[in-house]
Design a protein that fits this description.
alpha/beta; 31% helix; 24% strand
């Protein structure tokens, strides 16, 4: 089934070329199907790349999805054209009286800042609180996961000795979770972050269950027992060249970054990386949509928590 996105969104042409089934509002209205209403709070500076990655995995699932793109009103984006935001995005103030079946909150390259020092932290807190009553299941990615764990559950982040970048193996520790159905005992997922959370802190909180963890990368996946909050520290939605672009950007900026681990063939950045994580990403997002959202929310609903 398709993901329903605006006809002129740049991601649409990319996804159609890849064979991802997308449709416009006009066609969606002709179908007697209630789509899953999914909000995406896109905190990344390169919003077009991130929205394409997320729409790709959502469009690979068997459910019809209607997407609302959100950006922060309290932050000025310097890397996304204002006309793109004006045409395709809205702000929290415009949707705060609405209800969504699911929501995705992305990461942001601000991990080394204290949460309270982030310029849009007050708005972020407002949105995180709002999700408790207005969203059935929220999937938090990378910094978004750390922010939600901190605000909702009091879990602190910690700075890593150096940036964690590359493709890492993570072992499943709760295979019975619906979020992991159909997946292997080991998950290969990209990581790209300067901070992390301790599994022991999550367990001590008593409100979060760790589902997958890596020897080198630490916690990958955690949820609340009711699956209303899902936390992914990595990026199963990443493109083949995302880590490559990040590495070369940092190298050109004179930051002397380490090579992403387990990424370039023979650690040669001139060679094209192989994609070894896509199936895991598609399945994780499909399981979230199906088991955490679709199977839980009734067909006729105006309030997903009733």
């Amino acid at each position: 089934m398709p993901v329903n996105i605006p006809r002129d969104l740049p991601a649409r042409a990319i996804l159609e070329d890849e064979g991802i089934f997308v449709m416009s509002d006009e066609r969606a209205r002709t179908q007697d199907i209630r789509p899953m209403r999914i909000a995406i709070l896109n905190l990344m500076p390169t919003k077009e790349a991130t929205e394409t990655q997320l729409l790709r995995v959502l469009g690979s699932t068997p459910l019809q999805v209607e997407v609302t793109l959100l950006h922060m009103a309290s932050h000025s984006s310097r890397n996304t054209p204002p006309e793109h935001l004006e045409a395709f995005y809205t702000t929290f103030a415009d949707v705060e009286d609405q209800y969504f079946d699911g929501m995705i909150i992305t990461g942001a390259p601000i991990e080394l800042l204290k949460f309270e020092d982030v310029d849009y932290w007050p708005e972020m807190v407002q949105i995180l609180d709002w999700t408790r009553e207005h969203v059935y299941s929220t999937l938090h990615i990378c910094w978004g996961a750390q922010a939600a764990l901190y605000h909702h559950h009091g879990v602190q982040k910690y700075e890593l000795p150096s940036k964690l970048s590359g493709i890492f193996e993570h072992r499943v520790v709760r295979p019975e979770s619906a979020l992991l159905r159909g997946l292997d005992d080991s998950l290969t997922v990209p990581q790209s972050r300067h901070t992390g959370v301790h599994a022991a802190d999550l367990e001590s909180a008593g409100t979060v269950e760790v589902l997958a963890v890596g020897d080198d990368a630490g916690v990958l996946l955690a949820t609340t027992p009711d699956l209303r909050q899902v936390f992914i520290t990595g990026h199963p939605e990443y493109d083949r060249d995302t880590l490559d672009r990040e590495y070369k950007r940092d190298a050109e900026a004179g930051l002397s970054p380490a090579l992403p681990e387990n990424y370039y063939p023979d650690d040669d950045p001139s060679r094209e990386p192989a994609v070894t994580w896509r199936s895991y990403g598609v399945m994780l997002y499909a399981n979230w949509l199906n088991h955490c959202v679709y199977q839980q929310v009734p067909f006729e609903q105006s309030h997903p928590l009733r």
